[in-house]
Amino acid sequence: MSIQSLGVGSGLDLESLVTQLLSAERKPKQDRLDAKDASFDAEISSIGKLKSKMKDFLDSVDELRSDTALRGREPTIQNPSESVEPFTAEAANSAVEGSYKIAISQLASGSRIETAKAVDGGFASSTSTVLSSGSGSLTFKIPSTTNTFSINVTAGMTLQQLSSKINASANNFGVTSSIIDTGTADGGARLVFSSSITGAGKDLVVVNNNNLAELDRVSTTDSTETATYLSPKVSAQNAKASIDGIDVESSTNEFKNTIANVSFTASEVSELEGDGVTFKKSTLKIGFDTEGIDKKIRDFVDNFNALNKEMTALTKYGLSELEDDGALAGDFMIRGIQQGLSSIVGSAVSGSSLGTIFQLGLEFNDDGDLEISANDKYGFGSGEDRLKSALEDNFDEIAKLFTDEDQGIGKRLYEYLKEYTSYSGLLSSRERSVKDQKDLLADEREQFELRMSSYEQILRDKYLGLDQTVAKLNQTGSALIAMLGN
Length: 486
Fold this sequence. Notes:
This protein is an alpha+beta fold. Helix content is 41%, strand content 18%. It is built from 9 helices and 17 strands. It has helices at 14-64, 67-70, 159-168, 290-315, 332-345, 383-393, 395-403, 409-421, 426-485, and strands spanning 73-78, 87-91, 98-106, 112-114, 136-141, 148-153, 175-181, 189-195, 205-208, 221-222, 239-243, 246-250, 254-259, 262-266, 282-288, 363-364, 370-371. Strands 1-15-3-11-12 form a 5-stranded antiparallel beta sheet, with no helix packed on it. The radius of gyration is 43 Å and the shape is elongated.
């Protein structure tokens, strides 16, 4: 587009005139586009905030819609002293409430094999002593299990090389090889095999597959498994405990379902009584996870209120000229969501003896928020009292209140919220629709700018002709004045 400086020839302020005409033409349309753009931005931002609050509330609801999550059992352990914690425990939701006296008398361990002293036919050095002048192999295994792997022994291999090869084996099931240098000529270097496979009868066996005499020094038996060479210095053993005076054992340190639907894992031996023989007992109690459920309920209340406040702020009308309307003032969809949520939360559940959230200690206040009141408003006890009573006396009924297949508040809320928060949900679809409108508005702006540019060129062409005409008249007038003056 060619832009000339108007008024140069005529001396008239045509540039200012064009600018004012352009501004007069642009302003109403520009204001309309800006207002629509601001409205779209406000709606997109508001929907984003609303979806975020809904997601937080949805997470809280998700914690309450599962029967498994609400029927949790919480094991607590009281030990004789704080310095020794013999075991930890877990309980399934189906575990029965109860109290048990438990003492750990022995931890499960694997076996340990040591080679002989140098003076007894062992090894003088870990790096210079040759294991065998021939080649063969050793098999490490735990009888009656699938745990097994083999190591090839090459001619001239040293004790250190064998130890390293065992530890590096990809098939090693849990055998650790180490060397202890005694520092004495008699003791020499001692090769030690430690197995991590625990449980009585699960001693490590090292088989000299090729019956090479030199490899008998690092083996427990020959290829027929009838000979006896090295014997475990420490045999594999079970963990041992007593539960209410009944002795129990486990091949590992974990006692699974020794108490029905309860597992406990031994970590250290219990302390001894003053007689030096009797083990002190810890108390394991299996009860309801009241603290966990209490937190889930309070998180539910907090996130419901945060969502409710957000919806109220977005849809409100200002009560005076000094108070702005919400970004989505009077929005039918948002108000419908708000009413729908309140209706579900306040509904009755016939499958639970609690009936409604009121018996759980929750109630609506005048702002439509949930609260757990500290005061007795209606003669049924405060909200805190009712919540405490429900947790202590109707624990399983709380689960039914939220998870009942047909009327459960948690189940219904989750499905309701999903209609709006999922990718194909109503809020997400609305958000995409507004963004599409914003894109169309950008196209409209572009077309508007093209029209304004064309309009500016028309004005400039129009007033350029006027400028040139006036300039010629001025020149003619100046010439006539000059002629008359002569």
